[in-house]
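User: Predict the structure for this protein chain, please.
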Amino acid sequence: MDVIEELVRKNDTKILLVVLDGLGGLPVSEGKTELELARKPNLDSLARRSALGLHIPVDWGITPGSGPGHLGIFGYDPLKFRIGRGILEALGLGLEVGESDIAVRANYATVRYENGKPVVVDRRAGRLPTEENRRITQKLKERIREINGVRVFIEPGMEHRLAVVFRFPEPLPEGSDRINDTDPQATGREPLEPKGENPNAERVAGVVRKFIELASEVLKEEKRANYLLLRGFSQKPKIKSMSERFGLRACCIAVYPMYKGLASLVGMDVIEFEGSSIKDEIDALSRVWDEYDYFFLHVKKTDSYGEDGNWEGKVRVIEEFDSLLPDILSLSPDVLCITGDHSTPSVLKNHSWHPVPLLIHSPYVLGGTAEGFTERECLKGELGIIPSVKIIQLLLANALRLKKFGA
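Assistant: Here is the predicted structure, written as structure tokens:
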């Protein structure tokens, strides 16, 4: 990517990236995927006039998390920039993270106790309402402020999610975040004990184990959210901004904190707005349209319904976005990209390794290769199957923001 940084030039073009989280799918009904079942005349019409393809978020056969999935689309090789989910959640919730900090994302969960040991019943506590999350998190904040000289900061997120930052008295050596997740990734199992891969990480893990013990005591009377599962222990990385690398004034429009955190990590301004619907996000986009030249708009529920195995819900979100697509097109972006960060097939109820549908619309594409925006139609497109990290190059090129290479 160094060569791209050398070729970048600035102009007045506007690039809009829309990420429908977990967009890709597999057949769920009548042999069709969610994209194929959805009634989406606007997306299909746009697809006929656009460049289509599929992208691989990390590598063939590798199932990505949301962090690596988005980093690749933003132009940062996820195999090189390995960023833990905790840092993204913490930054997205407005927590400061420094060189002496370890951040982790937490899920409220439901457990039952068998012979005094917790067994996971629901990994997301029934997708706890956000207001309930705030009430319970306040209890944790009041009761757990410090552990053995390590300050503890806790902030509620959306639904069942929250973030925790452990602030040590001195800067931590690199690798101090090498601690396993405690989420067993399945119900009917005991949570995993956090253990460090090296002495520095084990020191942190000892504080984490004490935190889990204290949190369990605080939460024991809650009906659903009576336990915490921890994922994505991470330290703050050193990473160039999108302005430094690509010459872009970039902003993020998202509802969920993790995606705000990821955007802020690569130097995007996070736009605050009222509401949480796709329409609210598009209204915010319109409001700041004159202020930036790169816009990242994130839609979450395609992924949430896919993880729940609710293909009908995923179809409805695609159809809702389609109904609002004319509002986006009315802004006349010079380059419009619509894709996902990964696939979340409802039949798997999880992220998957499958290539992700990709659409790029600009005056400088061939187009006319397919009849609509689906996984199978994208296979016919001019873009082929590409690594996600190459998407930014195509967007910059279509925005005429790259100089010629060589004489």
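The radius of gyration is 22 Å.
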